[in-house]
């Protein structure tokens, strides 16, 4: 099959689409090549894989077989698989995010440091997706010199990849595709004019270098040492409480009946450092509930964490925090805050925080599947915390990253001994994994305890597991 025949076959299966499409680079294109449909045409898919292999290794630009092949997730995975099978080349798979169970690997498969990987992609515009895959392959000691794609959109990817020491091989370019469609009468008139104008205006799509893969680090200071360097008074109090009570277990009391919450708090209070509430889901809420909960917290020496997740402008959150039915600032030792409104949101809390020395917990990462609290958002939340240490006591996160300082308390939700997750996107990790491998400070357990018929017994197990994991760390 030659390039012209391939283009027409792709057009026949509706892989070539005309209209208005947003590309990964963010630009709007009047033409879109959707190679995902090729998985329903096995012979065509096999031909594509072969043409791409031949382009690299039978054109004289590269010598011999690569050690491994790796498809950029997800469209290129079937192509890479076809190439792997046809030429007996081992394959590795790059996950978009490391799984939180099993081997917990970002790169799956058998390989050794120094192996050369041929990266396979369906098409390139800016080259951003390829660079992200190369970054993760490099992070485990693999090398990449060549990248093969079916289509080069001729919008800057080749130049970008070359600057990063990568050779780009393409079976055909956007110009060749368009010429084939014109010659066959598939592209004409105003649509053709739009496509040509678009390509001319977008010859180079600049792409920033991908962010380095997050690096998980360990704190080498014990809680009592970190209490001395904490700026927020509630962070100091919590560090000291954990050290003296010997518990880094928080329990999420996500119950809707006030007496059930009070019973749970009384039962497990001796085992926890923090009880987390969602005050607005309590169906029979009244002020007597708060008084009773405060009494239990004082009796058993734990703090109250209202998981309100404030996310509005400063003036609005001031009222939400201090006023209304719940008057959260008067009793909550800590509350959660989203950063979508920017750092100005913290101004809305300043007066209320002074009432009982409370602290803010910024949501840097979440435990739900598909969470958008990743990448630059996470970095911005860490920066916001570091710039507002008097108000911010810590972060809700899934791992300790390099820029998370020791004066911040790191709390991690989504913890269970059973790490299978639920049907609504919640993902679970074990206490040992969170404390020892992800190096955060406090595990937050919900259903694993309050849905158990013996919550006190279960809380004792979680407390022991998380505290033992903490004690097993290497401290100065």
Automatic annotation (TrEMBL):
One of its GO terms (molecular function) is orotidine-5'-phosphate decarboxylase activity. Pfam families: OMPdecase (PF00215), Pribosyltran (PF00156). The keyword Glycosyltransferase applies. The keyword Zinc does not apply. Its EC number is 2.4.2.10, 4.1.1.23. SUPFAM superfamilies: PRTase-like, Ribulose-phoshate binding barrel. InterPro entries: Aldolase_TIM, OMPdecase, OMPdecase_AS, OMPdeCOase_dom, OPRT, Or_phspho_trans_dom, PRTase-like, PRTase_dom. PROSITE patterns: OMPDECASE. This is Uridine 5'-monophosphate synthase. It comes from Dictyostelium purpureum.
